[in-house]
Protein 1
Amino acid sequence: MNKRPVNFVLSVLAPLFFMMPAISIAQDSPPPLAEIWMATPSADHVSDFYKGVTAHMAFRSEHGDPREWQVYTPLLGDALGRVGFRACCFSWADQDAYQQWNENSKEVDAHFNEHVAPHVVKWEHYFETLNWKNSHWIEDDSYKLFAVTQFQVKPGHAADFNAARDKLLQVALNQGWATDNHPWLWAATVGGNPVESIIIPHKNFASMDRDEETFPRFLAKHMGDDAAAALMKQFSSATLGSNYQIWEHQEKYSMSSDD
């Protein structure tokens, strides 16, 4: 998607969130990048915005868009009007090829400018790198909700953050936490302040109410209370803080391989 009035090229979705429902980690990990566009529709254009998005997604599919754009909306906080468009997973070389496709698809650009752009007051654009090595992602098309915790890493403390996270993940991966019931994905924002995010997928809200052992208890059981507390302190000391959001996958506005 391009938005000429504001020089916009719709490519892949934002650092906070959300994952495409069908990414699996096999022996060969998927490519390491995702792209995200965040839109804030005008308050009095929301209905027209979604009508435009529906028409434009179909138009992109009909004109051979090589990517499947997925749409997400936030459920928490005071900025509920945002809409995320995300595509995954690709390399930087793939991004060059995709931009060339955009340049050669002027009719798609024109359709976007007519049906979507007039209804949006603000755009944000992000790339994110996906840390498959430190993730445990399970392919499942039934994921609908994505709980995302973002950690703002202190300037100059990236090495401390990474070291503490690696230790935490080694316990999770080697001591039995990484099961089909505990999938997760780590992602990092490209550019701007260093932000690391962990994404936990859910099929429904009920799956968030887990009576089973929590990760801090699991950690303490395998490391001992003092060692677990020290490691958690090392992790939190490398951050300025965190925020939590739940993103809902909006399948009816998204593209699919069947389009």
Note: The first helix runs from residue 46 to 62.
Protein 2
Amino acid sequence: MKAYNELKSAGVESSLSFDNGKLDYKANAKHDTIYIPAKDSIIYVPKYVPGETVYINRLTWWQQAQIYLCRLLAVVLLIKYLPSIWKVILKLLKRR
């Protein structure tokens, strides 16, 4: 036997020998890699940085006013059209 083909996973080692008319085939599983969690070697220590606090991603007064006015408009429209929406819902429920 000069060569042989076999199907096996990557974690298996095999050996084949032919001695005194006896075929000896052995398959051994390799040890799997084990990852042991370790502590982070970097220690984070908060430090005070002197200077003025800079705020980023803040809304301007105009953006805040638009949000407030849109919420107010939504409430007014909901109050105005809620009775008609309620009537439509009741009609749909009565049809069933």
Note: The CA atoms of residues 47 and 53 lie 14 Å apart.
